[in-house]
Amino acid sequence: MTGRFEDSTLWRRDLRRDMVARREMLGETARARLSAAIVGWLRVSFAAPASCAFCWPIKHEPDVRAIIDEWTSRGTRAALPVVVAEATPLQFREWRVGDRLQGDRYGIPTPVAGDWLQPELILLPLNGFDAAGYRLGYGGGYFDRTLAALTPRPLTVGVGFEINRLADIRPQAHDQRLDWIVTEAGAFRVAG
């Protein structure tokens, strides 16, 4: 490993912790208010897709389940990501309200049954993000591998709080750029 790579890895590890801490300091009431604003921007910015993947909120991330409820009431098939094997692309399992969820090896609620599908749109949580459309996840690389492998590539919409906006996440060669970023401040199409 080069010194530059090691520095970036340490920097990203520390940054990941800082991003979670920022969200935690908001408090539950503020997070709910900001999540509602994000859902409002999703409502006016995107039509209900045929299929949509989203992530169950963890580590104080925005909760966008309200838009999933609205879209599914209009016929959208919703799905949650599933880690099927370490260091491989995610797969997406259909989820409906009331379906049984079980924590995966990371503690993330995951459907235990349901059809596999490829989503037309993916709502991705933003642990950290920059205006260029790059996101900082939790370090496993699952979404980057998944987006690189999906054909056709779904519309990717990052959802996060403005307190997690960064000047530059220092994207690495494997990092996948998002199509849109939605925060409580608005919906922003990524240039390029």
- Rounded radius of gyration (Å): 16 Å
Question: What fraction of residues sit in β-strands?
Answer: 15-25%
End-to-end Cα distance, whole Å, is 31 Å
The residue ranges in which pLDDT falls below 50 over 5 or more consecutive positions are: 1-6
Kindly state the number of beta strands.
12
Name the helicity range. 25-40%
How confident overall, as mean pLDDT?
93
Strand order of the largest sheet: 3-2-1-6-9-11-12
Biggest sheet architecture: 7 strands, mixed
User: What coarse outline follows from CA principal-axis ratios?
Assistant: globular
Which class best fits the helix and strand makeup? Answer: alpha/beta
Determine the number of helices (DSSP H or I, runs of at least 4 residues).
4
String of helices and strands: HHEHEEEEEEEHEEEE
